[in-house]
Specification:
Low-confidence stretches: none
Radius of gyration: 28 Å
Number of domains: 5
CATH architecture of the largest domain: 3-Layer(aba) Sandwich
CATH superfamily of the largest domain: P-loop containing nucleotide triphosphate hydrolases
CATH class of the largest domain: Alpha Beta
Strand content: 25-35%
Shape: globular
CATH topology of the largest domain: Rossmann fold
Number of helices: 14
Distance between the termini: 55 Å
Largest sheet: 8 strands, antiparallel
Mean pLDDT: 85
């Protein structure tokens, strides 16, 4: 196919603005998926995506319409999966910026738009959900005109649910998105924008072919990892994988590399042929982890099983960074870098579902830079890495620029929330008369753990946010250890601000008290900072009525049995220390604060 007849584009939007539903209509109207085989959110192939109703992974699909080949990439909307969006944008020439006609421009709409502009893409503004009674097309059109500086007639109003005006959108994609301009006669160069592991075929890469032609049976060369392998199969995704004889310049497709070594095929690498003399493509900026957590096999389980599961997961989720870790209590595991709390939840769930590995996750923390008294500097990724207070000169923590979009009625409540988190106000912009865009600077640790949930609560669900890290600033941070039955639980150790140690300790102890089942002996719960107890409580013992068999008689008989029971409980408490089973629900609740 000629390059002039190819269009590569993706759909970007805030979470829940209808990207996957619009993708369904595009597939249906172009006849890519038969009507009888249509399901809702066809491109959300992961069980987890269908259950939660969110897109987690980018997903390509090829369509044919009016003599043109349209390569679509559906992307996630949640801030934790922004890296999937940036990778998709690098593989296409244009994008559909989707805005919900009932909610208007949200924080992630802006973040994704700026990303598309950085990549120099053609942006097609689209209003979705015009079939809803609450849709306000006129106001939302003005909002988009103000944001993009485009003309009103350039904005296309569609309904992804009913299919209204979707054909007009397809025409606009053909008309406005530029065709690829690769060199068809040169040696092939393909950008790997996604990959996953297949138990039968090895590593499968999703590629955008920039120059040349790739054919089955050729010997591949990966430029960054310097590895070779033979193409056992290639083709396009529509949305199932369909084998072809070749992939031509400008197309998006899949390549079965046959590699068994997962490390050989990296996202962002340039794929070419063995012996070809070509320059590598720009690739991607490495994803910078926002927080770190320890992941260990449950009950000291099989570490090699967890390692294999992690490698497979890392192949399909390139924003995940993994390094070995060891803990006295939990054994050998991994220190994992993630983009947010939802990302952590998804990783834990995918490990269980896709590889059957049940894990314990330690309390997440952001990375801190520690200047020591001896003049050395170290970066710590977890509470157990923090040196003794006597060796620490200063701790520096990352700060983020936070953009919050909220109806004007809730501005006061949001400002109070951010002040409680010690955020610094910068400016306010008004998107229209009813909605404001607030700019703040906040400590990353205050943003990442549960700020999004708190924002949704104070704004009755209308608030939205996006953030990016800016710099590092001094912080008075200490390590808080949690003792259960007088034994420290490493997985629950956490880094807190000194002034908040008592409040955070109290909250964790309260959660544990609710979650840990009662035993036959008293369980002490304590939160300590540098050996000093800052919060404490106890779980009372279950009591068996040892005097039920007595009837009347001398009270000393009763006393003797009760004293014997008391001594037994004391002995059990001494033996039971360290043997208290903490349910995984308790870990999760502590993580979520």
């Amino acid at each position: 196919m000629k390059q002039s007849e190819i269009r590569n584009f993706c759909i970007i939007a805030h979470i829940d603005h209808g990207k996957s539903t619009l993708a369904d209509r595009l597939l249906e109207i172009t006849g890519t998926v038969e009507k009888r085989k249509m399901t809702t959110q066809v491109l959300d192939t992961m069980e987890l995506e269908q259950e939660r109703g969110i897109t987690i992974k980018l997903q390509p699909a090829r369509m044919t319409y009016k003599g043109h080949t349209l390569n679509l990439i559906d992307t996630p909307g949640h801030v934790d999966f922004a890296y999937e969006v940036s990778r998709s944008l690098a593989a296409v020439e244009g994008c559909i910026l989707l805005v919900d006609a009932t909610q208007g421009v949200q924080a992630q709409t802006l973040a994704n738009l700026y990303m598309a502009m950085e990549h120099g893409l053609e942006v097609i503004p689209v209003l979705n959900k015009i079939d809803l009674p609450a849709a306000d097309v006129a106001s939302r059109t003005k909002e988009l005109v103000q944001l993009l500086g485009c003309a009103e007639d350039e904005i296309i109003s569609v309904s992804g649910k009913t299919g209204e005006n979707v054909e007009t959108l397809l025409d606009a994609v053909i008309e406005k998105v530029p065709a690829p301009t690769g060199d068809e006669s040169s040696d092939p160069r393909a950008l790997i924008f996604d990959s996953f592991y297949d138990d039968y075929q090895g590593v499968v890469a999703y590629v955008r072919l920039v120059d040349g032609v790739l054919k089955k049976g050729q010997t591949l060369h990966m430029m960054a990892t310097d590895t070779d392998s033979t193409i056992t199969e290639l083709g396009h995704i529509s949305p199932a994988r369909i084998a072809d004889a070749e992939i031509t310049t400008g197309q998006i497709g899949f390549v079965v590399t046959g590699m068994k070594d997962i490390a050989g095929c990296r996202v962002g690498d340039t794929m070419t042929l063995k012996g070809a003399q070509v320059e590598s493509l720009a690739g991607y900026k490495e994803a910078i982890p926002m927080l770190y957590a320890g992941i260990f096999p449950k009950d000291g389980g099989d570490v090699s099983e967890l390692r294999d599961a992690m490698e497979k997961l890392q192949l399909s989720d390139s924003s995940l960074t993994v390094e070995p870790d060891q803990s006295n209590a939990l054994g050998i595991g991994f220190r994992v870098g993630l983009l947010g709390m939802l990302h952590l939840e998804i990783v834990q769930e995918r490990l269980l579902r896709e590889s059957g590995v049940d894990v314990i996750v330690t309390t997440p923390s952001v990375r801190y830079r520690v200047a020591k008294r001896d003049g050395k500097e170290i970066v710590i990724k977890g509470p157990l890495d923090l040196p003794e207070p006597t060796h620490v000169e200063q701790v520096y923590e990352p700060w983020a620029k936070v953009d919050i979009v909220v109806p004007t009625d809730y501005v006061g409540a949001v400002m109070t929330l951010v002040q409680d988190r010690k955020g610094i106000y910068t400016t306010t912009e008004y998107l229209d008369q009813t909605r404001a865009l607030l700019h703040y600077e906040m400590a990353l640790s205050a943003v990442i753990v549960d700020f999004y949930d708190a924002l949704k609560t104070v704004s009755s669900g209308y608030g939205s946010m996006s953030y990016e890290t800016i710099d590092e600033r001094p912080a008075d941070v200490v390590r808080m250890d949690i003792l259960v039955a007088e034994e420290p639980v490493e997985a629950l150790s956490t880094l807190v601000y000194r002034e908040e140690a008592h409040a955070v300790g109290k909250r964790i102890i309260k959660t544990l008290k609710e979650e840990i089942p009662r035993q036959m002996f008293v369980i002490k719960l304590q939160a300590t900072v540098g050996g000093a107890i800052v919060a404490g409580d106890r779980i009372s013992a279950m009591r068996k009525d040892v005097t039920s068999g007595l009837y009347g008689g001398d009270v000393t008989r009763k006393r003797k049995l009760l004293d014997k029971q008391k001594k037994g409980k004391k002995r059990m408490a001494a033996q039971g220390a360290g043997r208290v089973e903490i349910p995984s629900s308790a870990y999760l609740k502590v993580l979520k604060r």
